[in-house]
Write a structure and sequence with these properties.
Strand order of the largest sheet: 1-2-4-3-5-6-7-8
Number of helices: 20
Oligomer: single chain
Strand content: 15-25%
Mean pLDDT: 80
Shape: globular
Distance between the termini: 57 Å
Structural class: alpha/beta
């Protein structure tokens, strides 16, 4: 016993001095890294087979998350997270069944993950509803048509605290805590996927919710879409991000690191490696949640996320969800249910909004493209860099985009335009140029372009720097008239405050005599408000109305924003 005590004290003293030495190595990160690796390897060698497997899985996951958060994974090749380098960053809407083009995401073009003004406060009064003999907690704010927000794993209604203020002016926001999660009761049930579906079904019925706009994330998306597919008459619209939109194969599920973790989570029962990681060590809350957020969570935020799961017994529902996710045909009943709602989602004519990030975790490049190509009537919005818990990294962007989408639908206008920080926003015109004028003397294609752009501007926060490009296919026979109009527009625009750049460029591409001549307008403005002065100006309207009949096709307009803040380190 004496020898063991001496060894323990010797180890503690050595680790203390090791920490001091690594602090001294702060300016030599490679040297410090090698030292940490050597100690880690020595410790891992003493873990044995069971704990060794847990260590290797956790190490792979943590390494992958660090790569994602620091941008290293963006330059990888192949599938999973590395494939995000090729992910297009279109704005909204993408044409139904057609992905919009956009620039690749690289570390140089991606701003830091996470908005700055994310509040940790949870200023909502608690409400409870008795469901199947247990209380389900929910928060509510606003009035009017219901907007129901359904959280995922290992979260609760706390995750919606920064979105609700954007949405509550437009309806009655209702955010329930799934049974066993948040401040809802934890009854002695199995917490299968269908248990959660049964409780959510009853909650929606007891609240008598109709004309519902659903806002869904993670496992909440599976439960919400399952409910919607069986109650389509009660659904008005669906917005979702990092969602389970279809069953997965093991080959296309998430990233390679997360894929390996899920295999471990699903093996064995109580006492298994997955049980130890999730139930005993609280890995989902303590490691996965903060690392897959993409920004540091404050101690206050972590306190709220830890609150529902203080003991191993309370974490069993967290452990059950990854085991109930439809992957590789299992579990069979969940696989069948997800397949059914996925088929419904693809064909139903209900307005749908997809918000996605680069590289994502569930909705990686492959799945975003699948959504854009297969889901009928889908609008999609790229919100910038992000991992899985986008409601924590970009809550205000998501809230503004969903709010603008709701307003567009209520005004009776389909589609819209938007964008992403550092990414492109499409507002492509549609219809043929020329012909009968709409809106007075405005050609139809120009009228649609103006409507799309105005909706996009309405969705932006004040003070947002903005740039744009317009591709104009000019009739060769009308090039002289077009050039004169372009010269007048350029002279007037460059006099406006906030205009950094305004220029016309002519394509050098060889063409046949009948093909249009491509002209590109490039403009860059310090703020959205200053650009809006230009957009509403008489000289721009005169230009648009004059050249509409000189084009051989619709103008293609794209906006970009976020570059200015990124370059300035904000």
């Amino acid at each position: 016993m004496s020898d063991l005590t001496k060894s323990m004290l010797r180890f503690s003293w050595a680790m203390s001095l090791f920490g001091v030495r690594q602090m001294a190595n702060v300016l030599s990160p490679e040297r410090a890294g090698r030292a940490f690796d050597e100690v880690a390897r020595a410790a891992a060698g003493e873990l044995g087979e069971a704990l060794g497997g847990t260590y290797r899985a956790g190490d792979a996951f943590q390494s992958g998350m660090v790569d994602l958060a620091t941008g290293r994974a963006f330059t990888g090749g192949g599938g999973g997270a590395g494939a995000a380098a090729a992910l297009p960053q279109p704005g909204t809407p993408a044409s139904p069944r057609q992905p919009a083009p956009g620039p690749p995401a690289t570390p140089e073009t991606l701003p830091p993950i996470g908005e700055r003004d994310v509040s940790a406060a949870y200023p909502f009064e608690p409400h409870f509803l008795e469901v199947h003999g247990s209380r389900m907690h929910y928060v509510t704010q606003g009035s009017g048509e219901p907007i129901v927000l359904v959280h995922g794993n290992p979260s609760w209604s706390y995750q919606w605290r920064n979105l609700i203020p954007h949405l509550s002016p437009l309806g009655r926001c209702i955010a329930p805590d799934l049974i066993g999660f948040g401040r809802s009761d934890k009854p002695k049930i199995d917490y299968t996927w269908f248990d959660h579906a049964r409780y959510l079904d009853a909650f929606m019925d007891l609240m008598d919710l109709r004309d519902v706009t659903l806002v869904l994330h993670d496992q909440g998306s599976a439960l919400g879409l399952h409910w919607a597919s069986r109650h389509p008459e009660r659904v008005k619209a669906i917005a979702f991000f990092e969602a389970l939109v279809r069953p997965f194969t093991w080959e296309n599920f998430s990233t390679p690191q997360f894929r390996e973790l899920f295999r471990i989570f699903r093996q064995g029962g109580a006492g298994s490696q997955g049980w130890q990681m999730i139930v005993e060590q609280n890995m989902f809350v303590e490691q996965l949640l903060p690392q897959a957020t993409g920004r540091p969570l404050s101690e206050e935020e972590m306190r709220f996320y830890r609150e529902p799961f203080p003991t191993p017994e309370t974490r069993v529902p967290i452990w059950k969800f990854p085991r109930q996710t439809a992957i590789g045909g299992e579990p069979r009943d969940v696989w069948d249910a997800v397949s059914a709602y996925s088929e419904w989602l693809q064909r139903v004519r209900i307005p749908k909004l997809l918000l996605y990030a680069t590289p994502g975790a569930l909705l990686t490049e492959e799945h975003v493209r699948w959504c854009q190509e297969n889901i009928e009537g889908l609008e999609s919005v790229f919100i910038g860099p992000g991992l899985h818990f986008l409601e924590e990294s970009s809550p205000h962007r998501i809230g503004r985009e969903i709010a603008a989408w709701i307003r567009r639908r209520r005004s009776g206008s389909a589609g819209g335009a938007g964008g992403g920080a550092g990414g492109g926003a499409g507002g492509d015109g549609a219809g043929a140029a020329g012909g009968a004028a709409a809106d007075g003397d405005t050609p139809p294609a120009i009228a649609k372009l103006r409507a799309d752009t105005t909706r996009m501007l309405d969705s932006l926060a004040a003070g947002t720097p903005i740039a744009g490009t317009v591709l104009l296919p000019v009739d060769p026979a009308q090039e002289g008239r077009f050039d004169e109009n372009a010269r007048v527009l350029t002279e007037a625009t460059r006099k406006l405050p906030g205009c950094n750049v305004f220029a016309f460029h002519k394509s050098t591409r060889e063409r046949s005599g009948a093909e249009p001549i491509e002209y590109l307008i490039y403009e860059d403005w310090e703020t959205q408000e200053q650009f809006r002065v230009q957009w509403d100006s008489a000289h721009l309207r005169r230009f648009q109305n004059s050249v509409g009949g000189l084009l051989l096709g619709p103008p293609e307009l794209k906006f970009y924003f976020g570059w200015y803040e990124y370059r300035r380190g904000g």
